Structures are given as structure tokens and as C-alpha cells.
């Protein structure tokens, strides 16, 4: 009830949301209140935006599946400009608002010596959340970080205060990432090595997020270093041979590989009854690759639907957190780009040995960097599908002709194409947000 009071939204001239939270309704004044805000799973962990996954290339729709989807999701599936993004925008900024409220309140509390440790952890968790959702927004509403550019273009507004009257201004892409890096690096100083639940960030999750960030920005030495720091603390992989291949949801929530649990609310267009696996991707799994059975189920029309979520649910709710397999693949890719092919092969073999039927996996050996990178990127896509990562991967990989991908979709006999570097890789900000704030709209 406290969180509902804090996060209530009233109509009015909001500066950065369609509706703004009124923190005057109820103000937390003790550590337990602040922990209650951070602990609220459905408000803080279950609202990750899904528009990137809708636009990604891991699936396709039939004409009937497309026609039965909402107007909004039909448009984003075909990469059409559609300025109704209030849900994704507002939910993410609600989390950021709550994180800011926690940080500001912490600075006002008179704490005993015994409360200092708890306060430090809360500060780290709030900083982590602010960074996590700023990064999520940047993947949708700001251009991709340019590996060979100034990154001075318009990014997202950085909300570093809970003051809803403070006008929103779009920071540059460079400033976006500088702030996100700053928040995560500071968070790691305060986070514990282990947390009471995987829905709460800890130091290991902080290292995993830094690895993701450095990979997105092309800093491969740093990405590998933080991946290594993460894996030194937790490198547990699930042996897929131990899982039920007939289960509707083979993977448990908070399973051994999960470092930080976060998920996306049900996007109807990605429901098993609509979203059908890209045939080329499905065929890329080997005969003895258990992911081919654990990740997918066969439809009556011969196509396949995805069921391999780390959410523990058989619905279209997607795991959008951090996990050991992603971090291991981050490091493998960085090792390839750094010319450390033997170490890259070790990482990839470590993962795949847990994914194939016992006794059937033949270790991979890398001889040249180009083929090694191609192999690692294929395995990355096969392992991390439907985790709200593919859209970000496309945006960064499209900057290199070797890894660039042109996407095509066909609906009602008409072909729609999204080429590398297309402006449509940056989604429109919600029209109401633009009208209320006066910010510049994306092209």
C-alpha cells in the first residue's frame, strides 16, 4: 500500500511522464519503507519494456496472427512509425522515479551505526535499478552507441531526481552512457556479494551489467574483465540433461543461472499462439542440442513456438534479467575480438557442453578470428533469444558490414524491410510525452 501511495499518478502538466507521481501523498521515512519499495517485484522487476523484442528477428507472424494483434503491436512488428509508447516509457520512468525517491530519502535519514550497512545496500540497489531502466529506455528511444562516433546526438532524458516539476531535456547519447556507467560503478561499491533474493541486485549482477554495458559500447577489454569478475563469483550453468523435455515451462524462476531476475509483461503478439520461430534459426540447432527441445514446442501447422523462458512461466512473459550464460557469451565474444581465440573456444565449449545430450558434444576449435566471431554470434543468438537482447545486438552489430543483418517480413504478400542503420531502429517517443514536455521527437 505504501508503494501504491508513492507511485500514484495524477493528471496535470507532467514534464516527463504522461501522468506524474505525487510523492507528497505518502513519504517514506525509515529504512523498512525504502526496502519495501525496492522489494516490490511487480513494480520494480516486472515492467521491462518489450518493443525491441517485438521488432527483432527471432520469430514471424502469419497474416492471421498479425491481423489479430493490436494496432500498436502490428505497427511495431512491421517497423512502422507509431507514437503510442506511453506504457513502455511510463513504466520504466516509474521505476526510475522510485529509485530516485529511495536515494533522496536515504540522504535525509538519521541512521544508527547498525543501520549503515543496510542503507548502503539500499543505495546500491536503487542506483542499479536507475541504471538498468535508463539503459532499457536508451535501447529503444535513443540511437545506438556509435563505436566510431562522437555520440552527441539526442538520447533519452536522464531523471536523477524525484522532482516531477523538473523539466525533462534529452541528454546526448554520450551523456546517457556516462551516467549509466557512473550509477553502476557506484552501485557495485555498495551492493553485497549475495542478496536475499535474485530479484534484488547484488555485486555479481552489477559486474554482469557492466559487462553488458562495455560490450554495447565496444570496450571489449573492459567487457571481458567485468565478465570475468562476475564469473569468478558465480559461474554456475544448468546441465540441460537434467531438465524435463516435455515440460511446458522447463526452466524455474530464480534458477541457478539467474543473476538478476527481471521480466517483461505479456506482449500478446509474442504469445505462443501467434509468434512462430524463424525457421532458419530453429534449423541452426544441432540434432543433439537439447535447446531444440527445451526451448521450443511444435505447433499443429508444423511451425514452432518458444517455451524456453527463464521466468518459470509458459506464457509470453519474457525473462529480461541477467544470467550466467549471457555473461559467458559476452566474454567469449570479447576474447574473439581481442584475438584470444583459445580462451574464447574454452568459454563457448563450457556453455555448449551443458546444452548437448551427454556424450554427443564435440568441442569447437577456433583457427581464425572471422569464423570464430561468426560462430560465437550465432551461438549468442541461439542461447539468448526472447530476452530483450536481440534488438540491442542488432543495433550494435549492424555497425560492422561483417555482422550486419537486413530484416525482412511479409504480411499480406507485401515485403517490409529494415536495413542496417535504419532510423527506425530508434522508436518514436510517445506523442503525449512530446506534447507535454516539448522535447524533440525522433525522426
Task: Describe this entry's structure for a reader.
The structure is a single chain. By secondary structure, the chain is mainly alpha-helical. The protein has one domain (2-260, 267-437): Serine Threonine Protein Phosphatase 5, Tetratricopeptide repeat (Alpha Horseshoe). The chain is built from 18 helices and 14 strands. A two-stranded antiparallel ribbon has the order 1-2. Strands 3-8 form a two-stranded antiparallel ribbon. Strands 4-5 form a two-stranded antiparallel sheet. A hairpin with a 2-residue loop joins strand 13 (407-411) and strand 14 (414-418). Helix 7 (86-106) runs antiparallel to helix 8. The protein starts with a helix and ends in a 6-residue tail after the last helix.
Total DSSP helices: 18
Number-wise, the strands total 14
Top CATH class: Mainly Alpha
Spans of at least 5 consecutive residues whose pLDDT stays below 50 are 1-19
Shape: globular
Give a quick account of the main beta sheet: strands, pairing sense, barrel closure.
Answer: 2 strands, antiparallel
- The count of domains is 1
**CATH fold label:** Serine Threonine Protein Phosphatase 5, Tetratricopeptide repeat
Based on the coordinates given, report the CATH architecture.
Alpha Horseshoe
- Ends apart, CA distance between termini: 41 Å
The neighbouring-strand order within the major sheet is 1-2
Helix content: 40-55%
